[in-house]
Specification:
Helices cover 27% and strands 16% of the residues. The chain is flat, with a radius of gyration of 21 Å.
Length: 266
């Protein structure tokens, strides 16, 4: 690990057969997409999520690659939202003046399948968020899975790639040997990263909460900006990944989270 970048850590290994292939020997994959569920209709999102489980043609849930892919049938073994926030929905400090808390309801979407198409998870998240915002009904999933009814992939934006994590790759007959020392170092480094990011999060949250307490509700709120809750994946305007080329307020008005599913193909 001393020779690897800080973003890579090896904690275990296993012997494999001579014809082993890290991609094609994989029997399943687990993806997680971390997001803020505050303000969304989660029961409807779970209802839609259940419709994705099983073997389906997912050509309307991916970025089409007609050159390299000719089969869009994949099997989703399980799909669920896991709430991980444990955070209160309101500011409970003694000096609270009925300030809405921008604290998110953090959760992750976990999907396990035999294989996935290009951008399948991000396209799925887009559909689920539109349903959670009331812009689409859960039945839109059934419609999109019916390629006779919807024969061309609709035009809809793509969810942010930042919160998407390939969480696990599944292999048969693998006997991993783990290093306790490497695992301990990884846990310490991960905890350090988590604390540093949590401090940044608390600073930003405190600023957003206390400016409301200091100035009170806005007399004329911007109808395009939701001041009650943060967006589904947020935007770190201080990072290199922040949108460029247009003002912040414009980016807030035209994000991938807005709008209905359009017609046409892409």
């Amino acid at each position: 690990n001393n020779a690897l970048p800080n973003t890579i850590s090896i904690t275990g290994w296993s012997f494999v057969v001579d014809d082993f292939d890290a991609r094609f020997s994989c029997t399943g994959r687990t993806y997680r997409y971390y997001m803020n569920l505050a303000g969304l209709d989660v029961p409807k999102m779970r209802q839609a999520l259940a419709l994705l489980v099983g073997e389906h043609d997912f050509r309307n849930f991916c970025k089409m690659d007609v050159v390299n892919v000719g089969n869009w049938v994949r099997t989703i073994r399980s799909a669920q939202f896991v709430d991980i926030s444990g955070m209160p929905s309101e500011d409970t400090r003694p000096d609270n003046k009925s300030a809405p808390s921008p604290l998110p309801r953090m959760a992750y979407l976990e999907i396990v399948g035999n294989a996935f198409l290009y951008h399948q998870i991000r396209c799925t998240v887009t559909i689920l968020v539109l349903i959670g915002k009331g812009l689409e009904e859960p039945t839109v999933v059934t419609d999109l899975l019916d390629i006779k009814k919807v024969s061309a992939k609709p035009c809809y934006p793509l969810a942010d790639d930042g919160p998407l994590v390939l969480w696990n790759c599944h292999f048969d007959a693998m006997d991993f040997k783990f290093s306790d020392e490497a695992r301990a170092v990884f846990q310490v480094e991960s905890a350090d990263i988590a604390v540093a990011l949590m401090i940044r999060s608390v600073v930003a949250n405190t600023m957003a909460s206390e400016i409301h307490v200091a100035y009170g509700p806005m007399k004329k709120p911007d109808p395009y900006v939701n001041t009650e809750t943060a967006r589904v994946t947020g935007v770190d305007w201080t990072s290199d990944r922040a949108p460029t080329g247009f003002p912040k307020r414009t980016a807030m008005r035209f994000s991938w989270e807005d709008g209905h599913i359009g017609q046409g193909s892409s």
